[in-house]
Amino acid sequence: MALIIKIIKFELSNTFRSKWIIVYSVFFLLLTFLLFNFEGDSNKAALSLMNIILIVIPLVSVIFGTMYVYNSIDYIQMVLCQPINRKSLFIGLYLGNSIPLASGFLTGTFLGVILSGFSIIGFKSIITLLVIGFALTFIFTSIAFLIAIRFSDKARGLGIVIVIWLMLSVIYDGIVLFVIYYFREYPIENIILSISLLNPIDLARIFFILDFNVSALMGYTGALFSKFFGSSLGIVISLAMMSLWLAAPMLFGLKSFYKKDF
Fold first, then answer.
1. Cα separation of 52 and 62, whole Å?
2. What pLDDT, in 10s, does the model give residues 198-207?
3. For residues 143 and 254, is the Cβ–Cβ distance under 8 A?
């Protein structure tokens, strides 16, 4: 544990000096401030912010995480020459990358909320948005680490993570809509619910829907999830599946890190 903490501190000191983290924080600060000041309905502003978060955070996390691993190859090789456990190094690198990204999002969004004024903002919706952004940062960073470690070629790895992001954030919803339209005459509710559990972005959206009680505004899967599982059970299921999405890439990435010949 002491070794992991040392690695995390070293990585944090490097990452926090990056101008991209500052730009990332300022982006969410301005976005939150503008949405909640120029949108009269704070609920609509929260929904708009959530939709942007579901696109921007996964994209930034996979790109930043992938490039972080590729740019750290020389450092990893040097550290592995020492009697250091690979598990400690992997966890240190992962947290050293994901914590600054999550901190940048949390800081920017929270400052935007402060500047907008608490009186016009639903506190519960903001907490939910912060939890969703925090979770998506760690999930997609773990996916980025897995891909970057599995594929040595930088261009190939970066291409794969962008395709994964595009698939989960854009194409996936189109596939769901196609299934709903094509099989609309059949009882496919359970299938749709199962499909939605396979996408962390959909899970984050469902978590917000159920916690914020806006299923009627968020489409077919949100209404189904609210109807069949109810608010409390739905939140528990979505949290459990998001935890699985975090753990699975981490475990596979760690396994690949143990086997990889740097």
1. 16
2. 888 888 877 7
3. no
Number of domains within the chain: 1
Tens of pLDDT, residue by residue over 42-70, are: 777 777 888 899 999 999 999 999 998 99
Structure tokens at 189: 């509710």
pTM over 0.85: yes
Residues in contact with 123: Cβ distance below 8 Å, sequence separation at least 6, in sequence order:
none
Integer Cα distance of 9 and 28 in angstroms: 25
Q: Is 122 helix (H, G, I), strand (E, B) or coil?
A: coil
* Tokens (6 digits) for 89: 């190094």
Q: Which residues of the chain have pLDDT under 50?
A: 121, 216-217
Range of the domain at 211: 2-259
Instruction: Please give the structure tokens belonging to residue 34.
Output: 């503008």
* CB-count exposure of residue 1 (10 Å: 0-12, 13-18, 19+): exposed
Distance CA 203, CA 196 (A): 7
Contact 254, 146 (CB under 8 A): no
Contact assessment for residue 144 and residue 250, using Cβ atoms and an 8 Å cutoff:
no
DSSP 121: S
> Which of 27, 53, 210 lies closest to 135, judged by CA?
53
Token pair in block for residue 127: 């907490």
pLDDT at 35: 84
Query: Residue 27 corresponds to which amino acid?
Result: F
